[in-house]
Amino acid sequence: MTISIYSKTIYMAKKTNKKEATLNLESILFKCRDILRQAKNSGSFFEKRDMMLTLVFLRFMGEKYEDGVASLRQRLIEEGLDPDNEEIIKAFFDDATFADGTFDLPVEARWSTIINTAAPQLNVALDTALRSIGETNPMLKGCFVEGTFTQRNLGANDMKKIVDEVNKISHKTFGEEKDLIGHVYEYFLKEFAVNATKEEGEFYTPHDVVQLIATVIEPFDGTLYDPCCGSGGMFIQSTDLVQAKQGDISRINVYGQEKEAATYRLAKMNLALRGISHNLGSESDSTFTNDLHKGLYFDYIMANPPFNLKGWYNDNLKNDSRWTDYDTPPESNANYAWILHMLSHLKPLSGVAGFLLANGALGDTDSLEIRKELIKNDKVEAIIILPRELFITTDISVTFWILNQNKKGGKYHGRQLRNREHEILFMDLRQWTENPVKGEQKKKVRLITEQIQRVADIYHQWQSEGTDGNNFAVPELYRSVGIDEIEQNNWTLVPSKYIEFIDHDLEIDDPKEMARIQKEMKELMQREKESQRMLEEAFRGIGYKIE
Questions:
Q1: How far is CA 437 from the centre of its chain?
Q2: What is the CA radius of gyration of the chain?
């Protein structure tokens, strides 16, 4: 059975290009969504989403296990051993371990068992698989809700239809490098949660945006932290980038925190599936009221915090150590609370943070004093305005912030950095909208790899020895600015205050342009006269006259 499944998968992979594969994945998920919408007992959006994500997790874990077994069999054959020999099976397969971090799955938890289970027994079989995985794999403790499938008790035929659809989803078909669980998460977020907001913690960061942050700050070794980690997409996609550059993900230790319980479980599943060592704390909880990593300092921070989050504050946070040397962030908005929280967790002499915030944080008056101190203390290194419509759930333009604890220079990832004290690099990418994403229900654009690399190159060049920070600028794209000019602009970080924008109307050659317009109007009027003449002749031909 395993051979036939994978033969079919490989054949499909050969027959489809990337665009077709993406569309195919969307069609599979659409069918699952439709089944769940029509089925009895399918539950709320969150229950539908969690059911689907758990199934996809079981599918991917089963696929990794079967790949691990196939690889082990091949290795044994190459060493002259018979993988079907009883003694060899006992020695290597009964308690199999795999170098890539793949879990050894008990029989009842394997996808081959699930897919061959009769429809009436599927709900019980699925919960049995989850319980078995949770008992045998400590990393997955707390990932699964007891009775995920039996308590919902979806109709046997409906459950079978969904399992058969999920069986079509494979890394072999859709790309090993993709965060497929994140893709599924995003799909059900946008399809089911019409009213979902970032405040509710239900927001997925697009792959290209994560790639941008990771390419710029280069979290290639050490510790990586995300204080609002969601489904773990930042970690997954960052480690993918590290591997693409022939890096070793074992050199990266990831830490995170997530407030929403279901999303916390999803993150643990997602990271465990990819063999990424992680510490997400012992439970889901608010980063502000219960910092699960208090006292720890990290090499890198990557984050997409909730935009303009309200209701984050309580009186216990008034004198919190995270705002020492700064004003207490305003109760009405958590933007600067996130900034100060992340700053408090950066290694004091070397930590780098790349994160997203709503553009309002660049110049709002409520946080003026905090922003002023951040700039004077030389914590802000770069401000990059991103194009609109990069996200599924919002079309606003957002800002990519970079904080750096070391602007004095030195070696960094093989580059010799110059002293950048009292300088900030501003970039404006709002005109980079030439790459629309097709097939979405709303307008969406993306950043392609070449654009991402260009941003990284600009930033890294600005950082490097040999660059004159006083004359580093390209109109309408970027400019390096000194602290004195920022002070003169009342400490605003809005890039348009500093980057030169050209009035293209002034570039028009008026006499030449008017001659062109005159010629076009003359041709238009001539065509109109000719049309009128032909119309009059047509009416005269049938015995009528146009007065």
A1: 15
A2: 29
Which two three-digit tokens encode residue 28? 């599979």
Backbone angles phi, psi at 399, to 5 degrees: -115, 135
For residue 112, CA distances in Å to 105, 147, 156, 520 come to 11, 21, 18, 70
The sign of the dihedral angle between the CA atoms of 233, 239, 240, 245 is: positive
Question: Which of the pair, 20 or 152, is modelled with greater confidence?
Answer: 152
Class of domain 2-176: mainly alpha
What are 346's strand-pairing partners?
298
Closest by Cα among 243, 335, 250, 344 to 293? 344
State the Cα–Cα distance between residues 63 and 100, nearest whole angstrom.
13
The model carries a pTM of: 0.77
Superfamily name and number for 200-497:
Vaccinia Virus protein VP39 (3.40.50.150)
Query: Residue 217 is encoded by which pair of tokens?
Result: 């700050």
Task: Round to whole Å and give the CA distance between 94 and 80.
Answer: 20
Tell me phi and psi for residue 302, to 5 degrees. -130, 130
The percent of residues above 90 in pLDDT, for the chain, comes to: 45
CB 335 within 8 A of CB 328: no
Query: What is the helix (H) or strand (E) element at residue 416, kind and residue range?
Result: strand 415-417
Strand partners, 450: none
